[in-house]
Structure formats: C-alpha cells, structure tokens
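Morning!

This is the sequence you dropped in the shared folder:
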Amino acid sequence: MSMNRIRTQLQSGKAALGAIVTMPSPQVMQVMSRAGFDLLLIDMEHGPIDLASAHSMILATAGTPAVPMARIAAYLPWLAKPLLDAGALGIAVPMVCSKTDAAAARALRYPPAGERMWGPFYAPMRWDMPMRDYKRAADNDVISMITIEHFEAVRRIDEIVEAHGVDVAIIGPGDLATSFGYHGQVDHPEVQEAIREAERGILKSSIALAGVSPEHANRMVDAGYRIVFLGFDWSLLQKGIAAALHGLQR
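The structure's back. Tokens below.
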C-alpha cells in the first residue's frame, strides 16, 4: 500500500485540496492536519521555517489524513534531502523556467532513477514502517512538484512538461504577475492569458495541474486542476478571526 494517498488520488483523477503553511509551528500544523486538508505544503521559501521546525511539523501530521510536503527556497539538492529524510512525501521547487530547471526531480529519487543519497533515518518512523520498506516505496511515493511562476516558464511550457520525473506543475499567479511587471495584478489580461497558456501546456501532458485559489477552487477542479491550495495558514487565520468578529457589538 502506498504511503502517499495524494499519489493515489492523482492516479484516480480525484482532486486533492491543500493549504500552504508558513508559520514555524507544529501546533498550527497539528490543527490544520486535522481540519480536512489532503495535503499541507510547508513553505521554506517565504516562511520563517528552519529545518528543525519543519521536522517537527512533518511529525505533527502523524495519525491524520494530511500528507506533509515542503517547498524549498531554490533548487539545491541539499535543501530537499533532509526534508525527505524527515518524512516529507513531496518537494516543490520554485521558479522553474526551463526543462533543465525541471530536472530537479532527480534529487528526489534514489539511483538509478535519480540522485538522492541514502539516509532516511526518520522517515520510516513517521510512516511507521521498516527502513527496507520505506526505501522500496520512496521513489514511487515522493511527489516532485515544479512551480510555473515566470513569463519565461510560460514561454517554454511545452519543453518543461517533458522533463522526466515531474509529477505536478503548480501555477503561481502572484509571482507570474510580478514577472510581467504587474505586481499584485493577477487579473491583468496579460497575466490571465499567460495562466491559460500554462494551463493548456500542462493539461495536454502527463503532469498534474495545481494552483492556488480559495475563491475559485470548484471552477479550477472542473477545469482540470488536480491539486488546489485553498490558501495560507495566515490568510485562513485572518478569515477565521474576521468571521468571529463579524457582527459583534464593540
């Protein structure tokens, strides 16, 4: 049986819902992993999360349906390796702009399929299995994610989706808009056209399409998205507080 239920969902065509976690808090991770999300992406690109915190956050998902994954700050194999060895079952690489960048998938799998070296001392404990079983299952269960968030990536989308070993491509509208010079203007026509072009390229490939939108999640699933992130821990917290305060006499 696969450790990674997200892999099973993607293979069956069923969409997975997730959130991005930026706070270095196992307690936040515990709460979110029991809230109904299919996966939680630990943000080590923009969030103030160090490796020790990430390890504790991965452990905080134990006993829940939520699958822990992580976004690293750049494609450097040594950034991904300890997260995998702690039990993360997916790594997202930011700012992929070429097929060469997308080859980062090799860092997530053991030879001969990839370049990951042995040392999963804690991952088997997180998934409650012997070391030999983890080693046997890891190559199939770890999900390789790339982020399409620059106009150059959109221009090269057809070659990027041909990269071997990539499982998921995430369209990042915020950075994509910024790359065009339209900071904060995700709805700008040029940005929207770039998103549609990226969608077309990814959907005609074998790679699963992913994106971020709490407002349009159902529409995205209908359009072929297989992973939709419903927001960040901080944005969900803000919305919860606003809802609690709404209508109260002060």
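Headline: Residues 104 and 227 are 20 Å apart (CA to CA).

More detail when I'm at my desk.
O.
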